[in-house]
Write a structure and sequence with these properties.
With 145 residues, the protein is an alpha+beta fold. The chain has three helices and eight strands, in the order ββαββββββαα. Strand 3 and strand 4 form a beta hairpin. Helix 2 runs antiparallel to helix 3. It comes from Chitinophaga nivalis.
Length: 145
Amino acid sequence: MEKIFLWVSGQGWSEFTTNDKAELEKRGISIHDRAIIGDHAIIGDGAIIGDGARIDNNEVVKSIVRCGSKHVVSWWGKDEIQIGCKKFTIKKWLEHYTSVGHSEEYDDTQIAEYGGYIKMIASYAETLNKPDTIPPPKTTGVEKP
């Protein structure tokens, strides 16, 4: 038995068990393989999005997540990188990762390590922003061999 929380107007978040199918069906709720989550949905901390996930117009999610020696580095295809609880634009990270590292008590080896991650992400993001270096998306379905 798993628990989920549903927003109840006038009451806030209310706990429900997933085995209470009648309540879920009454509310028109069904979450399963190939589920569609609507516009402006918020997916909370700890959520898992499976292989082959797509966002808007069949766009494939582009991301880099790396567990470094001190904090997790994450980039989700936008112009920002998050390291631990710090999130800045790629440009700001490139300019200030050394001073941020010192203020977060990283040693010189860790600063170099995270600088490498930041530079790798910046290089990849730059490649994605050059349309002539990326093949156009396939929108016609499965290709024949």
